[in-house]
Specification:
Strand content: 25-35%
CATH class: Alpha Beta
CATH architecture: 4-Layer Sandwich
Radius of gyration: 16 Å
Distance between the termini: 29 Å
CATH topology: Deoxyribonuclease I, Chain A
Largest sheet: 4 strands, mixed
Number of helices: 4
Amino acid sequence: MLIVNLNIRGVGGSTKTRYLRHIIAKEGAEFACIQETKLRTCTDVKCFSLWGDNNVGWVHYGGENGSGSLLTMWHKDAFTYESHEMGKGFIAVVGQHTKSNCRCVVVNVYSACLLREKIDLWGNLSAIKGASVDPIWCFCGDFNAIRKRGERKGTSVRDNHTSEMGRFNNFIESNMLIELPIVGKKIHLV
């Protein structure tokens, strides 16, 4: 399944709407995980506009007054929605990928910057995954955490980040996750 993942930092303007629609069309996306939409509420019309098609399913988490908001979308011809679970910082969507006939869970994540909140989020995600019988999981998003020194540009990694790195690596390892390399060019939107 081809998944587009983007921390858009506000999707209200027409420039970002056109950009997202362009990326989805260019890449032939079947699923999209969007973080920091800044949307308190969402509508079919907004999602149809973002995707460029009206055959789209979606789930929205409004965050706290738009802060930390998430939008998960999928093309209904490519993915059959079954259910979802959401909480602070995540949306987990369960369904069937049409082409491969595989049942899977796609989790859209946006973590707060505070370590205590990250630990809570990682614990919640681990519990949900641990209670599931679904074998295929994909976590997308912005964990606001690094796995090793040098991943965060422009800042130094202080000693208090060492504990965070260890905890984040433990979350990844204990859930048997594999970090996939980013494909494509990193683009910073204004």
